[in-house]
Write a structure and sequence with these properties.
Length: about 240
């Protein structure tokens, strides 16, 4: 199964539901019941705090966020505070780190390369930043990266701004580098882009970068989502994290 990666498009899914699914699939991957996977999802408006995140980096009050329909969730990925919402493509690879990329720095660099190659196909001259993880273009950050590795299996991943509501990023200090700005593909190229085309391009380049064959996941992997822990605990022990 090492040469294949299952790809699944989850559509629009609440953050906590997607997180529960990631945990279940990470356990399945650890047990060898499934091969490596790449999940695509779009989230309703949500602010997430990584392990180094602080609510001081959320500038809006709980009442203001509620009025905007934006929820807040703590999670086990690396990094600080970020925003997800409609108009983003979020990618969650669930994969054995060592066989996929060797180590976490190489994995993160591979994710950046995947996004940069995808954006080149859209006419966007994207680049890395010497001091910060993620992908940037003139005008600000286009993609955030934050991952976790539990029992050698990756979780979380990247979020690419196609045409999100950029005003929502003003509610936070995104990834702790709000002074660099946040932008979108739509703002850079002057037009909306098709999210389906972008997901397909991301999957293609992911396979190219990591030397894997990308195949559609069977629908059965999306059945029986894990019950959401009402305590809000992430419930994933022994986790290493990397993030922006």
């Amino acid at each position: 199964m090492l040469d294949k990666i299952w790809v699944a498009d989850l559509g629009c899914l609440a953050y906590e539901e997607a997180f529960a699914l990631q945990r279940r699939l990470a356990e399945d991957r650890d047990a060898g019941r499934v091969p490596d996977l790449l999940l695509f999802v779009e989230h309703p408006p949500v602010i997430t705090l990584g392990r180094r995140g602080s609510r001081d980096d959320i500038y809006a009050t709980p009442e203001q966020l509620a009025a905007l329909g934006i929820s807040v969730h703590e999670t086990n990925r690396g990094g600080l505070v970020t925003y997800h919402g409609p108009g983003q493509v979020v990618g969650y690879p669930i994969a054995r780190l060592r066989s996929l990329a060797g180590d976490a720095p190489s994995y993160v660099r591979g994710l950046e390369t995947t996004i940069i190659r995808t954006l080149a196909g859209l006419g966007v001259a994207a680049r890395r930043d010497a001091c910060h993880r993620g992908v940037f273009a003139d005008g600000g950050k286009l993609a955030a990266i934050g991952v976790a590795v539990s029992r050698g299996v990756t979780m979380h991943g990247f979020a690419l701004n196609l045409q999100p509501d950029l005003e929502h990023f003003a509610l936070i200090n995104p990834c702790g580098i709000g002074d660099l700005g946040v932008t979108s593909v739509e703002r850079v190229v002057g037009r909306a882009v098709d999210a389906g085309d972008v997901r397909r391009a991301l999957a293609f380049h992911f396979g190219e970068v990591f030397n894997r064959t990308m195949v559609p996941a069977p629908p059965s992997i999306l059945e029986g989502l894990c019950p959401i822990d009402p305590s809000g605990s992430v419930g994933v022990p022994a986790t290493a994290t990397v993030g922006t």
